[in-house]
Amino acid sequence: MYEECSGQMINKEKSSVMFSRNTKEEVKSAVMNKMGITAEVMNEKYLGLPVYMGRSRSKTFSYIKDRIWKKIQGWKERLLSKAGKEVLVKAVAQAMLTYAMSCFDLTQTLCDDISTMIGRF
C-alpha cells in the first residue's frame, strides 16, 4: 500500500522487524514471510541510537561513554592550551551527547561519569 501511494519502493534487504519477547516463533515467521523481510532486530542501532532499550538504561547507553573516552584518549592534550581543550570538548564530546539526549532521558550516573571524564581531560 505504501509503495502504491508514494511511488517509492521499500528495500526489503535493508528492512528488519522487531517483536515482543512473548511473540511465538510461528507468528514471527508468518509475519516476516508476509512482509518479505528476512531480518529480525535484536541489538541494532538506527541513526546512532539503540532501537531497543532493555531494563538497564546504563548498559544501553554505555557505548556513548566508550565513544567519548576513545575520542578523549586520541587527543594530544599536551599540545592544546586550556582554551583549546575547552573548545575541543564542546565541539566534539558534548556534541556527541546532544542527539542522544534529544531523544532519550540519559541516566544521571552516565551524565556524571561523562562529566568526570571531560573534567579530568
From TrEMBL:
Domain of life assignment = Eukaryota
What's the protein here called?
RNA-directed DNA polymerase (Reverse transcriptase)
Question: What's the source species for this entry?
Answer: Eleusine coracana subsp. coracana
> What lineage is this protein's organism placed in?
Eukaryota, Viridiplantae, Streptophyta, Embryophyta, Tracheophyta
